[in-house]
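Could you help me review a protein record that somebody else here produced? What it holds is a sequence and that sequence's fold in token form. I have pasted the whole thing underneath without changing anything:
=====
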Amino acid sequence: MTRSKEKNENFEIVIKNLIAGGIAGMCSKTTVAPLDRIKILLQAQHEHYKHLGVFSGFREIIRRENFLALYKGNLVQMIRAVPYAAIQFTAFEQYKQHLRGSSEQDSHINGFLAGAAAGVTAAAVTYPLDTIRARLAFQVTSNTLYSGIKHATVKMLKEEGGLRALYRGFWPNMLGMVPYAGFSFYTFEKLKYLSMKYAPHHLCSEHKTNTGGLTLNIPAKLLCGGAAGAVAHTFSYPLDVTKRRMQLAMMNPATHKYASGMLSTLRIIYIENGIVKGLYRGMSINFLRAVPFMAVGFAMYEIMKQMLHLDTGMRL
């Protein structure tokens, strides 16, 4: 194979991975958009919702605003989710190729490192959109600060110190992304391997890839993805709460104290609310969200790779 032909094939693979990842991200984020909004309201303890639970929170959003309010901020979420997932999944494939280990132990470590690096790469590129989306999702109809994406961006840049406003909460997000993305990709790949090795007749489809490798059936894809989400979110959740408090700090004078820095915010949350009601506030909604989010995301990515003739099979 000539060098130019190899470059063209590699470029085609990257483009297909970007498409597969983007579609997977769009499907997974839309699936859990209502859960995302109530999670943000609970994490940051909005005055109208902080005393409510998950399902009572849903009822209150519909009563106070309307049904479509469950999807508030979802447009900017889509603008962020598509490139985020596209970059994350594609980066994972690239990092995994470069970190291939010679032993099984190396493979485990490198799988975690590839996932962590992919998550950090995607989050760093798309973080400002995450901040804007959080601001739009946090406001309620009766008390609207921003009319849309453009207004929120301009207002934050003008009134909150320029570009740094869009990156408030960046470091806890980056630190949280290492265990979150690392464990999610590692857990999915590990469960995928174990499913194919020990229960191929029940968890694998009859279809095989062009290289003869096994592929998981759709229920198995969803199961492995859901388990990966549950494991990953457990490790990273306190930093996710910290990030969210920092992102939303400047929306209310009473919460400006969370804008001072990551360690300071962690300390304030712990002192004022403790571990369960502070650092793990909204964890129940997070599990309800994380399982279908990861299940749909990983399943759709694997399905899209098969549709685009990217070999997702595994030879045992």
User: Anything to note?
Assistant: The two ends are 27 Å apart (CA to CA). The chain has a mean pLDDT of 86. The CA atoms of residues 111 and 189 lie 8 Å apart.
